[in-house]
């Protein structure tokens, strides 16, 4: 059974723009799936619908294996722009959502240390976002998402604003992270190379009319 199943999803915005029409997608537990397609084809909208941040105007989203009522607890979301709070250091940026979730101080301390180590920022806990490079800011955003221990990690063109060398490094780190954490990853990108490098499966989207044109599966497992 899939982790999440999107069936017949349509999204028409208030301004009349159709982002998705008849969109079907099953997310399998443990996979690294890329949503690949040109700008405007509805990738972000699909991701936001999976996260429950946007409601579809048509179709259903189901979590067949889950019993919990609020799946948002199991989801980590990483946006294209690192959304760090400039007035807080890296550790506090990771800590704030944990505090909002009611995680105890001692548990939070452990999670902060662990997630910063996972992204290689253990020496930058006290640094402020303005002191970090673009790549490091993105790492901090990923650490913040990981500290919630998500089953499902959703990344919306996370490395699009970074230079290629940094992107390659972060791609490798993301693959290593998934092997270590065994989480499911949905990765939105417009880069064919990036999706081919990272994914166990690629859903290719086109602009007309915002549905999946093809699915490509890795022949050899990535492990
Ligand atoms: P992608 O992530 O593939 O670039 P999006 O999901 O962001 O595509 O957008 C799909 C389409 O929906 C685009 O035409 C975009 O302009 C439109 N769209 C996205 N968000 C909104 C919104 N909040 N209101 C109106 N139109 C939107
Ligand atoms: P980029 O994203 O610019 O490629 P990386 O995250 O790959 O940066 O880090 C490159 C190296 O530079 C790392 O070893 C990091 O520790 C170091 N570094 C980057 N910015 C700083 C800083 N403000 N202070 C100290 N070291 C830094």
UniProtKB/TrEMBL annotation:
PROSITE patterns, sorted: ABC_TRANSPORTER_1, ABC_TRANSPORTER_2
Any Pfam family: ABC_tran
GO MF, any single term: ATP binding
SUPFAM superfamilies (UniProt xref): P-loop containing nucleoside triphosphate hydrolases
Keyword ATP-binding: yes
Annotated ABC transporter domain residues: 4-223
Matching InterPro entries: AAA+_ATPase (IPR003593), ABC_transporter-like_ATP-bd (IPR003439), ABC_transporter-like_CS (IPR017871), ABC_transporter_ATP-bind (IPR050166), P-loop_NTPase (IPR027417)
Similarity field: Belongs to the ABC transporter superfamily.
Identification of the protein by name: ABC transporter ATP-binding protein
Organism the protein comes from: Microvirga terricola
Lineage of the species this protein comes from: Bacteria, Pseudomonadati, Pseudomonadota, Alphaproteobacteria, Hyphomicrobiales
